[in-house]
Write a structure and sequence with these properties.
It is a single chain. The protein is of the alpha+beta class. Helix 8 packs parallel to helix 9 and helix 8 runs parallel beside helix 10. It contains 10 helices and 39 strands.
């Protein structure tokens, strides 16, 4: 991890990147091609990390601030025990950068910071060990660590530093990649492996090389895990970008050698609880190390509920050690399946998009044998159902439904699974009725009986059924369809509001069951006539890879309003949007607009760094795109025909090399209606 707030790039561009001209393109699924055939790589035969390491690392919540100290570390160890996290499988309490003084002593030894750690690292290790936990520490495979204060790295000191770590009782080493002086990565990381081995102490070895030299191809017998990407940040765009890069690497992971997509951001505040559940679900399906990155001393109950979900943790910790693989990903509707040691499959239905979507697959598609029916266990609801074979759900925006599906006996003891869904636009103008149609579909082998459905909205809204809301029985595959008239009161401010769709039913044995889907309705205003600057119009939604989307300035850094004048290739623009890949900004156009125009490119604020690609989408169709653009290129003009679209989305992707320094501008972006 290169611990810099300024998003200094962590990657070297391997080859020249060429920019494509503006083109019209059809809808395409995200690229999830798996690597070519993977030769079985030997793993470290030391019995360590046979399941992905679980624990805590302070960096994401404290960085190098003074609050990172001995008291905090001991407090985290206490909370592991008090809150049941130790019982859930979390073991490692890991120190990140800034634990040492900037200079070694006269004997070349590392010196713990006496202000932060007045009793030294060994005393902290002893305390952590007394709780039945393990201690981790950090350094870099360079002359200095990543922090600008210049703490000593281990390059050239591998054996003496490893000996110190072992003498202190360290159980885990995170080995970063900063200030590496251009020394070959395999050489640097192998040297530290040998130094750790020479101590005779079992120490889990976490390679933090950022994926620069494809460590998944050479590190299985060097370390127990390897970072596959640059640093994560506490945003949906960052998490999504890393997820997409780690998923194709499934063939390289296994017991004792894991792909590491970086630490968890759950609870740090930059995402919603729905997004954090997706984050935790997908990291678990990918058999990733689960290192808590939030300050547990101030964590909310919702954060503990996510981190302590033992059924989801069991997915990550399954001893078979297989990383989940992509089954499908069309239009942001992801199906990822993980084979489990007991023969079951865990299936993640992950919704990348900003609206609720139905995502579906089947038991046989994810690798299970044909059977009369299957048991389907919802790992977030902690409820079991039977299914005739279909695995589907209407998944909230940015949400994940995580289920465990098994063939075999016992399915008939559970009620049938049902799929709730809604057709129709969730966009409404205040004071005007909108029609939605709900469906309740029986997915089970057994019928659903005494079915009733209800939709509710915020206080003051009118939600009224205009067709039947009950059915005496729904056989397998049959649906109850109900039309609803939904009206937001006149004067309701624009924004997103929650609707809830809830169905109740019984199994043939009389077991009561419920199914609930949260939906989002957006109150919108028609777009103004004429040509308007998009930097001045309200948007439906906005996601960004780092910090917030900025109006009429560049992205800047993580804080709102910290951007600069939009500048591409030395040309300054007064108006537009400043974003950071991965980014998506959606506007309601109400089928009344014709054209979007902009000058697009990488903002100058990151010097020579940054590679991005721009896309414009009209409803579900990509109508314009650029190839990869770099900072060395001037602004590229883009024009998109959006005639008849209800929603227009401006999307920026990372150009295929991670999101570091990907500051992108939609300069002089205009909408004509």
């Amino acid at each position: 991890m290169r611990h810099l707030h300024t998003r200094t790039p962590r990657r070297r561009v391997a080859g020249a990147l060429s920019a494509g001209l503006l083109c019209v393109a059809g809808l395409a699924a995200p690229a999830v091609a798996a690597p070519g055939p993977v030769a079985a790589a030997p793993a470290l035969a030391d019995g360590l990390a046979l399941t992905p390491p679980m624990g805590f690392n302070n960096w994401n919540s404290t960085h190098c601030r003074a609050e990172f100290n001995e008291s905090m570390v001991k407090g985290i160890a206490d909370l592991f025990v008090e809150k049941g996290l130790k019982d859930a499988g979390y073991r490692y309490v890991n120190l990140d950068d800034c634990w040492a003084l900037p200079n070694r002593d006269a004997d070349g030894q590392l010196v713990p910071d006496p202000v932060r750690f007045p009793d030294g690292i060994k005393a902290v290790a002893d305390y952590v060990h007394s709780k039945g936990l393990k201690l981790g520490i950090y350094t870099s495979a360079g002359t200095k660590t990543c922090n600008s204060a210049g703490f000593p790295g281990a390059l050239g000191h591998e054996y003496s530093d490893a000996r110190q770590f072992a003498d202190w009782g360290v159980d885990y080493l995170k080995y970063d990649n900063c200030n590496n002086q251009g020394v070959d990565a395999v050489q640097r990381y192998t040297t530290m492996r040998d130094a750790l081995r020479a101590t005779g102490r079992p120490i889990v070895y976490s390679i933090c090389e950022w994926g620069e030299n494809k460590p998944w191809e050479w590190a299985a017998d060097v370390g127990h895990s390897w970072r596959t990407t640059g640093d994560i940040s506490d945003s949906w765009g960052s998490m999504l970008s890393i997820l997409k890069k780690n998923l194709p690497l499934a063939p390289y992971a296994g017991p004792g050698h894991w792909n590491d997509p970086d630490m968890l951001e759950v609870g740090n505040g930059g995402m919603t609880d729905t997004e954090y559940r997706s984050h935790f679900s997908m990291w678990s399906v990918m058999a990733a190390p689960l290192l808590i990155g939030s300050d547990l001393r101030t964590a909310s109950p919702a954060t503990f509920d996510i981190l302590d979900n033992k059924e989801v943790i069991a997915v990550d910790q399954d001893p078979l050690g297989k990383q989940g693989t992509v089954v499908s990903s069309e239009d942001g509707r992801w199906v990822v399946a993980k084979e489990m040691k007991d023969g079951s499959r865990v299936v993640a239905l992950f919704n990348e998009s900003g609206a609720a979507r139905r995502i579906a697959t089947t038991a046989t598609t994810v690798g299970l044998p044909r059977a009369p029916a299957y048991t389907l266990r919802d790992l977030w609801q902690h409820r079991s159902y039977n299914t005739a074979g279909t695995v589907s759900a209407t998944v909230p925006a940015h949400g994940t439904v995580l289920v465990r599906v098994a063939a075999g006996r016992g399915w008939a003891t559970h009620p049938p699974a049902v799929d709730l869904g809604v057709d129709g636009s969730p966009l409404t103008v205040a004071g005007t009725a909108t029609t939605l149609t709900s469906t309740v579909t029986d997915l089970g082998r057994t019928p659903a009986e005494h079915v009733a459905v209800r939709m509710t909205g915020p206080g003051g809204w009118t939600v009224r059924a205009t067709s039947p809301t009950t059915s005496a029985v729904l056989p397998t595959g049959r649906s109850l369809r109900t039309r609803w008239s939904v009206t937001a009161p006149a004067g309701t401010p624009t924004g997103s509001y929650e609707l809830t769709l809830r169905a109740t039913y019984r199994s043939p044995a009389g077991t009561r069951a419920t199914a609930t889907v949260p939906l989002t309705a957006s109150v919108v205003v028609p777009p103004p006539s004429g040509t308007s600057g998009l930097g001045d119009l309200p948007w439906l939604s906005a996601t960004n890879g780092y910090g917030p989307v900025e109006r009429n300035t560049s992205n800047g850094e993580s804080a709102p309003g910290d951007g600069h004048p939009l500048t591409i290739g030395g040309v300054v623009y007064d108006k537009g949007l400043g974003v950071h890949a991965e980014s998506a900004v959606a506007y309601y156009t109400g089928k009344k607009c014709e054209k979007v125009t902009a000058d697009v490119g990488v903002d100058d604020e990151k010097g020579a760094n940054g590679t991005v690609a721009f896309e414009i989408w009209a409803d579900g169709t990509e109508v314009a795109s650029t190839g990869v653009l770099t900072n060395a290129m001037p602004a590229q003009p883009v024009t998109a025909d959006v005639t008849g679209a209800e929603v227009v989305r401006l999307v920026v992707t990372d150009g295929g090399d991670g999101i570091d320094s990907d500051h992108a501008d939609w300069a002089d972006a205009q909408l004509t209606c």
